[in-house]
User: Fold this.
Amino acid sequence: MQNFISGKYIKQLSYKSFQPNKICREWQMDNMELLNLLSKADRQLGRLDMYSEYIPNIDLFISMHVLKEATQSSKIEGTKTNIEEALLDKEDVSEENRDDWEEVQNYISALNTAIAKLEELPFSSRLIRQTHEILLSGVRGKHKLPGEFRTSQNWIGGASIADATFIPPIHTSINEYMGDLEKFAHSQEFYFPELLKIALIHYQFETIHPFLDGNGRVGRLMITLYLVEKDILKKPILYLSDFFEKNRTLYYDNLMRVREKNDITQWFKFFLVGVIETAQNSISTFDKILKLQQDIETQLQSLGSRSANAHAIVKQLYQHPIIEAQKAKKITGLSMPSVYKLISELENLKIIQEMTGGKRGKVYFFKEYIKLFSNED
Assistant:
């Protein structure tokens, strides 16, 4: 990596754009500290992947991982929706927060759709563009060519291109760069460890900045897609946006460090530390979920004949930890008086908690479960 050159600045009209060097080529690793981190990251990912196979009904919990990823990735871009608000229906969200809420919902939809499409489409520019189209559909940025690579110059930071922090490559080179990125992702000619490969792909994508808007979110979403497509993870259970958000300054600084100082090694180290910490935190979360399940199982036994209906509600809450009376009625088939009684008993057991404080339209949250995915430590 010592001879790595990230690219060069090219004079345009009144500014210089950065033209990165292509990445589909042979790479050599000779940094022992990096190799050690790579070994640790591989081990932790292996643990997480194996762990996920032993979690009953793991698909119930994946939706919450996706929800956390959506709120954290959007938060990096300035969106302020938290997990609790993201769980609400649109009409229950305050007017001033609805734009943020819709962006988070789009991210969830984009990620879920992209993972499903991996069955028929490889990790590719086509898949990335389709994902981008969903991400920007009907929200801020909807007029910035959703699903299409940009046809004009963009920039990062600054009120205008004149004082920009970084100016990505000229738009006429995007298809060539993205073709190189896609070729590298699937190259059999040049071996490179998969975790370093996606770290490099993420850096290169953010440097190319191929869209007018949504590049950060799409770039972070691509990490999970890649790991699933390459069968490094059987389930989409690793999301780095929380790590990037908590270390936001370092995240941006390390990306810029590659461009300005040709220091790709530091970016790789930062990325691998993120994989290690995130995998460890995910395993810890699964442990806490299993303990919570056991505790709740014990509590529900106290409900006697009503425990079966209570179980049905709790199972739904693991997938979507918010409920109201009509939804509970649909799940259980009980009459409304019986539903209210059951909800009251679940409240008494502190399994659910009413959040609105109103007399009508009460909404109940599975608070202890939500806390496992939020950042309320």
Remarks:
- The chain has a mean pLDDT of 93.
